[in-house]
Amino acid sequence: MHTETGQETDHDQYVPTSIDTDIPMPVNRKEISDKRVNAMLKMKVGHSFQVPGDLAQRFMDLTRRRKELKDMKFESRTVDELWKRIWRIS
Q1: Closest alpha carbon to 63 in 75, 54, 53
Q2: How many Å apart are CA 48 and CA 87, to the nearest integer?
Q3: Which of 16, 23, 61, 73 has its CA 20 to 30 A from that of 10?
Q4: What is the pLDDT of residue 37?
């Protein structure tokens, strides 16, 4: 029931029509984020790693959001049309 209007919605009537097996559960985003942070924490100044270009911004966002990385500085540069490289600079 829609709480604001008191009217029923289509969701209120939904019943699964099939039950599936062997469908893998998607990986938890926090778990992936934690693994990325742990890898970055192992880096020393001058170390770098290469990532697919579309993921580089996610790594750089971690450096601003996660307190464990606040004292470390990172820079990224484009390697080619598919890849970027991230360096620890301090």
Answers
A1: 75
A2: 4
A3: 23
A4: 95
Looking at the predicted structure, is the pLDDT value of residue 1 above 60? Answer: no
Q: What is the pTM of this model?
A: 0.70
Question: Are the C-beta atoms of 44 and 72 separated by less than 8 Å?
Answer: no
- C-alpha 72/C-alpha 64 separation (Å) is 10
For β-strands 83-88 and 74-78, DSSP reports them as: antiparallel
Take residue 88 and report the two structure tokens written for it: 């620890």
SS3 for 4? coil
Rounded Cα distance, 11 and 1, in Å: 8
CA contacts within 13 A on the Cβ side of 52: 2
pLDDT band at residue 3, thresholds of 50, 70 and 90? Answer: low
Q: Provide the pLDDT for residue 59.
A: 94
Residue type for 85, please? Answer: R
